[in-house]
Amino acid sequence: MVENIKKLIQKVKAEQDDITLFMLWRDAPELDKWSIVISAPWIDKIGQKAALDYWITLLRKTLSNEELSTVSRVGFLKSNDRFVQSITSALNISGGAATFSQSHVGNYYINEAIIFEAKKEPTVADFQAQITALLSQINDLQAQLSQMNGEDGNKKEKPLKEGESVTELQSQVEVLLKQINDLQVQLSQPEKENSPRK
Q1: What 3-state class would DSSP assign to 110?
Q2: What is the pLDDT of residue 37?
Q3: Which of 29, 90, 144, 181 is the most buried (most CB within 10 A)?
Q4: To 5 degrees, how large is the angle CA 70–CA 74–CA 79?
Q5: Hey, how many other C-beta atoms are within 10 angstroms of the C-beta on 116?
Q6: Is 153 left (phi over 0), alpha (psi -120 to 50) or beta?
Q7: Predicted pLDDT at 127
């Protein structure tokens, strides 16, 4: 079942987008069935009914009848749910499967769970911090370029550091500027369509 779920998650990520949290959850030891708990921003947008139809169809196609019989329900949590934020702040799991038994994860006690995805969603503040850090790097590189060149644009007599050239520094500045541009595009990206991609 674990391997089939990993394949299913990869398929969903390729078709839709990233998944913030995907876990199998068993509330009590005497229960023999799993609850599937899922959270993702694109699910927040399309709504729970459309998401349920989408996931149930995929689960039926991917899992065997025996595996399906061990699942009691599929539930969705908003990306900003406290449980989701607590788990994804405590863990960073993608493409794997981590088993927890009678453990505290974040602020929550977990009787039994298999967590396949737990990734904190980047916030606007995260993007802004990345842009600020990149701008700082650009300023440092531009300061180095200024030291290498005179005010009239002619190179100073001072030799370059070993392996360093103006062209290399300019290339680094261009790479950083592109990274800043990519982050700004992500910040201004329009909302995705409110339906699962086919």
Answers
A1: strand
A2: 93
A3: 144
A4: 140
A5: 22
A6: left
A7: 63
